[in-house]
Specification:
The chain has seven helices and no strands. By secondary structure, the protein is mainly α. α2 (33-52) packs antiparallel against α5 and α5 crosses α6.
């Protein structure tokens, strides 16, 4: 019986040590300044990049622009997705672009980042996958 009790204590000790190590790795009280600065930088970079591209929205990503949808269907990976594949009217492009720019500004300012970050992610992937001609290395990161 003593052998079993020793094994149970040993098992509990390993679990306790693992739990303590897990807490020390993931739940330390450290400043979040580097993460906040990165969030502000990403939001500002996206806002400036797509804000300056606003006059060229239909030229870069529209159906009649540099990469027509028919040509895109022949060259793109079938697993690539973009919300722009489902737009049929110009007002949809403009409405999404405006909302995307507002969400980039909100991400930069730190307002409602728990859900804004997902809209920014979907927008960035949609822009990158809709016209691979205008993407470069940083867009893929």
């Amino acid at each position: 019986m003593s052998r079993q009790l020793t094994f149970e204590r040993f098992g509990r000790g390993i679990i306790a040590a693992f739990g303590q190590a897990w807490s020390q790795i993931w739940f330390q009280s450290r400043p979040t300044s580097p993460l906040e600065i990165t969030r502000m930088g990403v939001g500002a970079a996206l806002l400036v990049n797509y804000g300056l591209a606003t006059p060229y929205l239909f030229l870069f990503w529209g159906d009649q622009g540099w990469m027509p949808r028919a040509l895109l269907n022949e060259t793109i990976d079938p697993w690539s997705q973009s919300i722009f594949f489902y737009f049929t009217a110009p007002w949809q492009w403009v409405a999404f672009h405006g909302r995307f720019l507002l969400c980039c500004a909100a991400l930069m300012l730190g307002w409602r980042t728990s859900w804004v970050k997902w809209i920014v992610l979907v927008g960035q992937l949609s822009y990158a996958n809709r016209d691979p001609l205008v993407t470069y290395g940083v867009d893929q990161i």
